[in-house]
Write the structure tokens for this entry.
Amino acid sequence: MSANTWTIAAARDALRKGEITAVDLTMSCLTAIDAGDGLNAFVHKTPDIALDQARAADVRLAAGDAPAMCGIPLGIKDLFCTKGVPSQAASNILKGFRPEYESTVTARLFGAGAVMLGKLNMDEFAMGSSNETSCYGDVVNPWKVDGRKLTPGGSSGGSASAVAADLCIAATGTDTGGSIRQPAAFTGIVGIKPTYGRVSRWGIVAFASSLDQAGPMTKTVRDAAIMLGAMCGHDAKDSTSADIPVPDFEAALTGDIRGKVIGIPREYRMDGMPDEIEALWQKGIAMLRDAGAVVRDISLPHTKYALPAYYVIAPAEASSNLARYDGVRYGHRAKLSAGDGITEMYEKTRAEGFGPEVQRRVMVGTYVLSAGFYDAYYNRARKVRALIKRDFETVFADGVDAILTPATPSAAFGLGEMSNADPIEMYLNDIFTVTVNLAGLPGIAVPVGLDRQGLPLGLQLIGRPWDEAGLLNHAHVLEKAAGFVAKPDKWW
Amino acid sequence: MLDLTHTAPKPRVIAGAKHDWELVIGMEIHAQVSSNAKLFSGASTSFGAEPNSNVAFVDAAMPGMLPVINEFCVEQAVRTGLGLKAQIHLASAFDRKNYFYPDLPQGYQISQLYHPIVGEGEVLVELSPGVARLVRIERIHLEQDAGKSIHDMDPNLSFVDFNRTGVALMEIVSRPDIRGPEEAAAYVTKLRQILRYLGTCDGNMQNGNLRADVNVSVCRPGQYEKYQATQDFSHLGTRCEIKNMNSMRFIQLAIDFEARRQIAILEDGGSIVQETRLYDPDRNETRSMRSKEEAHDYRYFPDPDLLPLEIEQAWVDHIAATMPELPDAKKARFMSDFGLTDYDANVLTADLESAGFFEAVAKGRDGKQAANWVINELFGRLNKEGRAIVDSPVSSVQLGGILDLIASGEISGKMAKDLFEIIWTEGGNPAEVAAARGMKQVTDTGAIEQAVDEIIAANPEQVEKAKANPKLAGWFVGQVIKATGGMANPATVNALVAAKLGL
């Protein structure tokens, strides 16, 4: 098997044993990337940087004290600011923007010796669940049915597609309402959104600041544990970053969950949920029970209010976070006509620079924060958020160690299939994932099986705050029991 | 702290064509926090730097940049709150005030609408001895300053300078307790004085480091008292806000104009539209900037990039323990310890530098005399040359030295003034300069007695006249001092002349 198909763990061990060099590993990924243009996952390739970093990694590896991520080639979501490299959040409004700084997450990864292969496609400003809002065009899921091109999910669709298609060993993602977990589930990979505050947001283009968290998207749970360890930790530059110790996540993968209590929330059994999803969920329950866990029905009574609350809070914050894209200092500025003033400059720049979904959310956000509507929408949504958080606190206080739910209400759907649908239908993709962001909890999507069409389906595990170690161990057990080894047929 | 006893001043009454009107004024003072770094970034706050040289990535609102609170700015706000006898809120929070303007890179200003760091306080504003207005402070919150738009460099383009962007401001909001233009200016003066004592704002109005938004309304006599009894604003008139005033004189002129404008409208049967106005000093008028309907909808909401600001009582206590003596206390102490008049105490406590200078001179000396010398000789001379006290060529040690020479009788008051001039221009140790120049009044009675005897002997007719009219003894005193080359101590000469003439 060519090296680009390896996991982080396998590559790490091979690199340390000298069975492969970081340069060769990187070359294998670069080759796969060039062959994978049909997926439209990479929007900016950085082979020169990658090879420089790989050479430096080989020096460290030779010295014998290289960290786990040393020499591991990664794809980086375009939402991360990478110094000197285009970082556009897949938006035309940031056309040509090359930051003078490196995000904390990428700085940590590169500091640990990881290699940047390039920037990955995504929904514009991480707003979307199908990767169809990108200024770079749709990302294609490597999984295909009947020759139909499918969405990899979103917003981290480029990351998901690239990892699933073995264009890179792993990728960074970000998750505001499910943007790591939903695409991971759609592409048969693992994606973890850590506890809010676990990973620094500094240098990541903000969508909704109180919800955004970065996390790894990997081929296995072990890889997620390894990569998360290198991404997280306190950062004084992010006031919401938590100053708490980072455990050895990989060491926590004992495979032993005997006696652990798994909650099954009845409110996640939605009307009209496909049988296959229900069946998958039951399969997951059985797997955890067989591994010695105690399965318990639980109630999270405010779940049904989560999606509307999310689609008030996230756009509200986004409307403010995106105000800085005004054409004054960087990025796109519209060509002005004679007599145009500052208002015309703003209006034309933002109308040209932002796509329709971003414009929709900016308008929704502006509306819900406006005088006269603030209490009815934004404040009410904040109250709902507090209740959702309390729902989780209550079940955790009752002894629940982790919660098992479906990751998505369906398998990957066809690109363009939702283009004429009500935006709300697209938003329903986030139904199982947004609660986790609203409550600030860690959540992980693990591939568990294939549907009738042969498309991957995932389950989500939700953990206690800061208990990524325990969560990863549960996910590790589920992964082992599911034995998901399917790979998409290479057509690209 | 010692509270000066006072009575409240009468409100300013403006006679309209139909009846009398009273003024009601509330102020929002924007005071730039004295701090080397900005509120949420490490960029410098130095004034007059090259445009766009004091700008951190977060100040320019680059993508993904995050604010981190500058603890020193918080400390300065707490210190200011304590100086205004205000409630310090151990928990406060930052909100975003959203609006578009090129000098506001984030598209929002980080401020504290819902939970300010400082709550209710007060400022005692003295207008004349024993007459003072107690102005209630509603709140003080921390917020970011905006940058500067420059429209006059190019006919087609505007430019922006972000040096000021993100600099910490304290917005100090008063209750509508100010009742006239003079009171308004006195309030700003007093607040500025306190801030300067505290070291929390340099009070430089010219540089815009202290700006005032002035809310003015008018009402019929009696209405304000109803408001005071109920705190119900409906008893008061509709207010207009005059933005961005940075001169004491213009504040007064603008209030006066605005009050008269409102009175004219009301007496014509019109009503006041709540709006924001700008004062034009060239035409001495206020002009509408935007009405309430046109007002921005700022869409305030809690800033999700910043956790609620929590401070500990122990920290507040520590700041309280290191507070400097404030103007009211210093004034009271100067009056009781040095026997100063109310007026002199006011002059000498106007700023810390003057107070410190005076106190250094007065310590262990005659306080009143020290006050006279500092105010009349030193301040007089400084004013004449347009110098500040910190640039005084005569130090407090030197002035003290001069006063010591007077006190010991070694030089006369007249000589002291000459000596002051010499020290002013040439410097030096007063005692040494006096000695070197032979400036020493003669107190040796033997020598003076001889001179008295000689003059009496040489002027028998004057002697007779003086005996008849003792007031003419002064002629002899003058002659003796002249004969001794101005060196004789006048008191000694007086006594001797009187004795010799048998007066």
Q: What stands out?
A: Chain A touches chain B at residues 80-81, 87, 89, 94, 97, 99-101, 103, 201-206, 208-210, 236-240, 316-317, 319-320, 322-324, 326, 328-330, 342, 346, 366, 369-371, 374, 378 (CB under 8 Å). Chain A is about 35% helix and 15% strand. The mean pLDDT of chain A is 97. The longest helix of chain A spans residues 375-397.
